[in-house]
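Q: Predict the assembly, please.
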Amino acid sequence: MLEQVIVAGFGGQGVLRIGQMITYAGFAEGKEVTWAPSYGPEMRGGTANCSCVISDEPIGTPVLMEANSIIVMNLPSLHKFEPVVIEGGKLFINSSIIKEKATRTDISVFYIEASDIAAEAGNALGANMVMLGAYVAATGIVQLETLYDLVKQTFTGSKAKFVDSNIECIKAGAEAIKALV
Amino acid sequence: MAKKLMKGNEAIAAAAISAGATHFFGYPITPQSELIEYMARELPKAGGCFLQAESEVAASYMVYGAGGAGARVITSTSSPGLALKQEGLTYMISAGIPCVVVNISRGGPGLGNILPAQSDYFMCTRGGGNGDYYHPCFAPASVQECVDLVRHAFDVADKYRMPVLVLGDGMTGQMMEPCEIPPRQEVKADKPWAADGNHVARGEHNRINAMDLQADVLEAKNEDIQRRLKEIAETEVMYETVDVEDADIVFVAYGTSSRAVKNVLSKAKAEGLKMGLIRPISLWPFPTEAFDKIKKDCKAVIAVEQSCGQMVEDVRLAVLGRWPVEFYGRSGGNPIIPDDVLKMAKDILGGK
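A: Predicted assembly structure:
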């Protein structure tokens, strides 16, 4: 198994966090993992992306030229990364924000109204967790339960109150995939 | 001891603390700022001294002072910052002061940019300051190797009484991988030369000095430096080889570039092509002996670097005309493209 995924969007949308959660989950399940951020003069509102590799074998470069899966959270990221998906790969689009459709016909495209779903789940800032849930449900790269455990480990102390709403967002993302396939 | 996911920058800092470092002096610069941030937070908790200097030059002389007093001391920076530290480095060579210097390099020349690059090879392997010297330089390719090499660097520095450089790049520093940090060791290295007030009788003193006005005195110092460098060259070489013996094409790459070349090797293997890799871990001393494993009718040795061609000069010296030497490089912070490297190798095999 070799999964190469790029997550991209505006700075502040939590795209690096999506990648970290995928990486942490792969690590928790005993797989080889790398996570590498795009690294420039990034800021809130600018563009950000990260590359993650989850594998059964030792990993070569953490810098991806192509990916099995792409998660995009804004329009510039769709334009930039749609060509990078390998044939037969998966493209996850936050269609609450991106109103354009993908043009590729040789890949599977999943439109997730992530921001709306997150708001309905009571966590307006949880669109990234919705996309994470959708990605994991569609690819099966890691178990959803692993993500729930990670959320519980991530939000502790005064932030423990965010555990339930983030898990709800992940579940809602996974449900959205079930409705699509 | 459990593995955890860490950024290279944080892992280097954690490794230094685990190696018993007691002092850190530095000045923030991207893309190594997580390192200094981690040190600011964690070194005082371990009983150590963290101090942000007013400049890189000042930081390098704080290292000189602490190291001269016998402390386990480290500083870290990125490319333009290391250029500034070169004065302190050559003074520490002269004064015989052990320390660890980390360079998480970025695009150059000049202020360049903050993207990963390998264009500091010359500065890090040739003795970047004035005078006759080299110093050891180790190049990690993974976060775990960041940990292992930083810990090793402290021991090498103490053993030979000189600065040891650890050279990563923006990708090594920023990427996150699993690693294991050993528990902190308290080091009581015997440093009878140190200016710590403990080693000489009253009325005598240890001198930590970078100036010798008498020709014979300075020549004797240079001979001592060269003697230690010769011993390092004979005993501290580190490298990894992959499938070199049977290879029709041998790549030479270190650090981040070597990771991209490993992707090239997998693709080549899948196509039935015989390609191998020499990965220098010690850049100085350069692993010349690894090249003796290459078979006589190998078609080419290709240096792959994120630079315009620096290590390739050492590759030519190691090859000594036995095989054609080619070069693939990217600069400006751009990554190595494995498919382009593979195509270059296939073109050579195809006689193009």
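The helical segments of chain A are 15-28, 75-81, 114-120, 127-139, 144-154, 163-180. The mean pLDDT of chain A is 94.
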